[in-house]
Design a protein that fits this description.
The protein has 306 residues and is an alpha/beta fold. The protein has helices at 23-33, 49-58, 75-89, 112-137, 167-186, 206-215, 225-230, 233-238, 255-266, 291-294, and strands at 11-15, 38-43, 64-69, 94-97, 149-154, 192-199, 202-203, 253-254, 277-280. The strands form two sheets. The chain has a seven-stranded parallel beta sheet, with helices on both faces. It has a two-stranded parallel sheet with strand order 7-8. Helix 3 runs parallel beside helix 4 and helix 4 (112-137) runs parallel beside helix 5 (167-186). Bound molecules: nicotinamide-adenine-dinucleotide.
């Protein structure tokens, strides 16, 4: 039997799915490929929802994609959307709290308002995902006789090391890891798992969209996927990813790779994983000091077969 990943018939939402190139967008496409019935793609950037719906159809999927303007920091908007989804479909099965931004400010430039916004968009929204997403997953109906579901929060490599981002982003994402752990316990009698994945540096729209996204109002990103990908090059260079490609931890990560992990966490292939955050950085954090202590690492000598 071939290995199968199936979310057949499931209904859920992905936040931060409005960019032309990003983890949320990839998640929507892969959830559709995995058989999800309806995916609500939520964002402040509303320019690319139509293209996303078309792309899902183009892969031959019958999944219904609905683009929704949502500010994830709004409790009221979040609850209203969840009520609408459950009333419309009689079920709610997965919640990807993935929206975020990163604006790299040093301590002199970082103001209280930046701190507050980072926490409300990237941490408080995850609390809403666990609380209200959990409540929505507990609603039963003829199409869903039992409480259950999966909540997946997007953390960051910044939750594992102090030098990856500014202090507000780092704190916001570290708190996401805490919500995964405590949330999994709080929902452990509801047949709902809570997990997360923490991307390392990944080519997405984040460096292009963050300034606009931080404002908290609807916007339309004009740049194409290609422009957005090239906007990431200077950052990859700054992070040292452009040197020594023979080291696995220096590889460039793509949004699709992160989405694969997310879909795995939402599926039955990961039933025994709960309360965990998977660090998906190709080993960059494990190699934080690079060659400073080990010296150059030679490739392993192949086993002699004589
Ligand atoms: N790209 C990376 O290197 C990287 C590394 C670690 C973690 N992450 C995390 O991955 C997640 C997805 O980001 P991405 O890299 O795909 O970037 P992206 O810019 O493609 O997607 C993030 C989206 O979140 C949206 N957003 C921001 N604030 C919002 C709000 N208040 N309400 C609704 N939507 C909002 C933005 O408009 C944007 O479309 C983020 O949480 C980010 O912190 C990314």
């Amino acid at each position: 039997m071939p290995l199968e990943i199936s979310l057949k018939g499931q209904v859920g939402l992905v936040t931060g799915a409005g960019t032309p190139y990003g983890i949320g967008r990839s998640l929507v496409i892969k959830l559709a490929q995995a058989g999800a019935e309806v995916v609500y793609a939520c964002d402040l950037n509303t320019a690319h929802f139509d293209a996303l719906e078309k792309d899902v159809k183009a892969i031959g999927s019958n999944c219904i994609v609905k683009g929704v303007l949502l500010d994830v920091s709004s409790e009221e908007q979040t609850v209203a959307l969840l009520k609408k989804i459950v009333k419309t479909h009689g079920r709610f099965d997965f919640y990807f709290a993935n929206a975020g931004f990163a604006n790299y400010r040093n301590l002199n430039d970082l103001k209280g308002e930046h701190w507050d916004r980072a926490i409300s968009v990237m941490t408080t929204s995850c609390f809403y995902a666990v609380k209200y997403g959990g409540q929505a997953m507990a609603v039963t109906s003829t199409v869903k006789p039992k409480s259950g579901g999966n909540i997946i929060l997007t953390s960051s490599c910044a939750a594992f090391l102090g030098a990856y981002a500014d202090i507000a982003y780092t704190a916001a994402k570290k708190a996401v890891n805490a919500i995964v752990e405590a949330g999994s316990v709080q929902l452990s009698t509801s047949n709902i798992r809570v997990n997360g994945f923490a991307p390392g540096f990944t080519r997405t729209s984040i460096l292009t969209s963050s300034k606009k996204a931080e404002d908290g109002t609807e916007y339309k990103l004009k740049e194409t996927a290609k422009e957005i990908q090239s906007n990431h090059e200077w950052f990859f260079e700054r992070a040292g990813l452009r040197v020594k490609p023979e080291y696995y931890y220096n590889r460039l990560q793509e949004a699709d790779e992160m989405a694969d992990i997310g879909v795995f966490l939402a599926s039955d292939l990961s039933v025994s994983i709960n309360g965990q955050v998977i660090l998906a950085d190709s080993g960059f954090t494990a190699a934080a000091t690079k060659e400073a202590c080990t010296g150059p690492v030679p490739p392993i000598t192949p086993l002699e077969l004589k």
